[in-house]
């Protein structure tokens, strides 16, 4: 293996420290045995930088370690507000020394799209790539407080947005050559270390010796030299770099992006479930909260940042969580008497979970397997084995059939399947661990789906509109006017559109949760949330020139195509940047983001101590809102229709977007899509206070709104159908003998005449709020809707043909009669 590095320094404008930056990084990289080549000074033209990078690519081999370092200006250009022509509204670029060369005839920077193409070509040769950028995007003319002329921002003058668009349009063919434009904004193989967050300023500073150097480069060089002989991952080192940088410039937030769990300049990754802990104004603050499943009463072991693997000998304290917010938690520290360290270092520490106070979901397992899986379930965080005489239904059941083992839902869907080799004890042990991990992951997803805003003072009052719809021929076609659509098929493409009509910037993180409980961060290219300034829009997913590519709906690889599956989109809309990567990747330590002038303490991403200036009049936390969009996905390849009562040809449903698909597909499921209307999340008597704009916006007709609410107070999940007409069923001799409470009937044997709406409400569990859903009514003339309730994951019929008045709230308490609360404004 050869280690190859390219150092690029562009002293365009008034920067004085780029050459010193390059020499400092050369010294550090030499200690790590890199062969260093240079492109600096007069060589760092647009053509010179691209040629040098391409030469590095040509020389790299699959086993090599490659590092690219850049010091200089980086610019940012944005379209005018309210200009939504389908193209990206923001582009970023590097600034070569010939940036203003009149012979170039136009824009002469190096766009982020071009950098992405170069980076993709690099990782195609070797996966071991590290990119270090000591530059910033900000064009603001500012001075660092207290430094005067001894500190300079790495910024550039404004650039014409139209010049950038013209450059892109003129060079589309060359940019796309050998490069997938759909993946231009992400590269899973490259570690990226950046000096500052978007819209922040990166600084170069004059030291006591009179030499200029980038603050980020100086800090990174110091940490890399200090830890040369130790095997630390980038995610830990960047925390220490942040601490050094912010000691000088509190509003510059350095970041590590990409696979930052890697050990420095290698492919080896540090696997750890540690969470960063920081002392802020004397208060220990865990940089994770309710969204990351932290609960009051959790106990964490605390160690210094010098090792990501927990060791009892390195433990300095125990942290007891006493107050939990959405993205951050406060704790109380108890230092061990044997530790020589009796305080948390300024850069923070690592916290390892010792004992969880979180609710644990019950799971079932065959008696023959209890002895094998019980120890593994005991070590899990979110599940427990169901008691022998315990009431209620388990979240999932473990099954074992012949040589296969996995978990299945209570209605019999096999969610995971793993091969079990009875002749290999080691393989069996690994498989049992994996099955328990599958169940634990699903329980984690259930907790996330049941998450609600804890306090009224945490609610973000915003004006962000979100819509989801289908993509056909790169054009937005059918929009889902209600969350979820039964006509969403495997392999179709959807778009997610975001629009901020407010006056303050919002940030949006988008999570996808599939039927197996796998959590994916769809907005991962925006590591700390999609930034939405006022009057800005964002589409997922668009290519650089505005072509709507969309997100393809896929089917889990190991899941049988026997029936539709429920999937979910969760949109977290926050007032500040938030790092939610730890939710989808347990080995990610949440990073801290920008310090806002209007915030006293930032959630998990805040760096440095509490500010003394104007603190008392400012809010103490990031506020947020949650938008939940359920989706029902239908497999493309349908099995033969089972001979159930509802599939005999009687009461066939019309097939259109507002109704359930017809019975020729072998299913009978009420539609989750109804006529266009915005429904309030809660009835007025359940509102805790001011609500987010999205969940509160109504289209009122005079008086009572044309909708109803249902609240599940039962310990099992329920499926609720609200229809305009009573459901129908083909009666048989067997069904006439069935219990009037619905035993023997389920959702598969019930046919609803459209229009109707179906939703599943989670069980009421300790620590989570009651599950509530809003349902539309299709006419005000009748003044009521017909409600049908199915209980448990098996969807057993319990209540049928009850009427619920328009605007009312129905409480289900596992009793034959619903508790009805009339509408009160």
TrEMBL record:
InterPro entries: Caspase-like_dom_sf (IPR029030), Metacaspase (IPR050452), Pept_C14_caspase (IPR011600). Keywords: Apoptosis, Hydrolase, Protease, Thiol protease, Zymogen. GO terms for biological process: apoptotic process; proteolysis. Residues 3-246 form the Peptidase C14 caspase domain. One of its GO terms (cellular component) is cytoplasm. GO terms for molecular function: cysteine-type endopeptidase activity. Belongs to the peptidase C14B family. This is Peptidase C14 caspase domain-containing protein.
